[in-house]
Predict the structure of RecF/RecN/SMC N-terminal domain-containing protein.
Amino acid sequence: MKIKKVEIRDYKAFYGLNKFNVEGKNLFIYGENGSGKSSFYYALKDFFQSSTETLSYDETENIFLTKAQKSKGFIKVTFNPDRSGAANDKTYTVKKSSKDTYAAGDTSIRDAIKLKSFLTYKHLLSIHHIKRDNEIDLFELLVKGVLKHFKSVAITGTKELGELWDDVEVATGKETSQAFNITAKKKEVDEAIDKFNKAFKKLFDKTSIENIMKFTQPILDKFGHNIEIELNYTQARPNAAYNAIERNYVRAKVKYLGKEIPKPHIFLNEARLSAIAISIYLGMVKRHVQGIPCKVLFLDDIFIGLDISNRLPLLKILDEEFPNYQVFITTYDKPWYEFVKSTYLDGNNSWKSFEFYARRTRKGFEIPIIRENKSNSHIQNYIDKAEYYFNQADNKAAGVYLRSAFEFILKRFCYEKVPVTFNLDSSKMKTDTFWNALKKFKQDKPTKCGLTPATTAQIDHYTSLVLNPLSHHDINKHEITTEIQGALTTIKTLKAELNV
């Protein structure tokens, strides 16, 4: 099952009806802070969780709705293929009054949520605070972070790991009274701790197939840090007064290139810790039964804590380890988004990209504005935008996007093919430098370049009429529609001739 379309109405940041044409592909989403990307994450998460839980829609409804607008919102997801593998649309809807994500004979949505495959950056925040007293303690990162929602009947029973720990904290925090004496409290605390310890320690049993590193280490290896991790859990216990928990920590033994590291708290910098945390999370997703029709993996803004040495391997890991999953990634990092879109995703038919922006309405509050990039070619997206603005009679905007397309075509073709004078300051790498280098390359190696004399002449013509002047403020420039249209046709021809 692949998500074909998502429709969200009046949920969190989304006001009114918002449609996302996913087309069964993986999504890479850029969003400004406050633009709705996390609302999209939680909408899909709530959609799947609705198959096993009763959601409080009043708490997630957009707060700016009028009285007349309230209670009409929904989250609607259309899949194709359906759960049987047939190329048919199957739509499920969650709204305040009803839901059909769990019905007799159709458990596909309920089965999907068992993977617990939704990870947000908030689950990784404790990475900044796990070095204590010259030791690494991964307990909070695991129990309140990456494994908070981990659930397995064989390990945690009917509850998530985080819920078992919540039970421990609630029990120890209870005040005693005449009706609830210390003996009753001790019994409740001991029972809660025992349930948690029995579940959690199974993940650290070296002889068990449930050992956490069995699934984690192969993924960690692909990050290329050359480290091996062994985790050990010291079981939690109540203090003497039964009002706090002690000894609940997870220690890490670390080997680097086969050599044991005596002081892991010094060796494990934030980049390595992030790789470990994400590897644990992804490993525990893979430990679940995989033979289900719908597998979605959503990573919300987790690149925040990752440097480039972890970001690129993660994309490769997702391709290699989760080929049967539909992957959703969000980021607020625009340069990183543009880099991925123009390299990794360019020409990759299994991915689509969306951009979320926040814009103020006439009533004063902000709503998401969604921009769908319909082509998986970065260059084609620029051309499409130029054509869109040309059809909207915005010649200035069309000219700017044509200029961007032209620059990208030149840089893409010249990369590793055409010698171009380099400058450390990229702003001084002028378009004319690439264009002149390309024309010389055509002269020197005519069979290696499809550029024709006619297109060369047209580019030289439209550079002075459209591509240069419309990218600058020039009140004396007369924008002529036929010139914009001619430049648009010429850029398309250039793209085809250079085969980029």
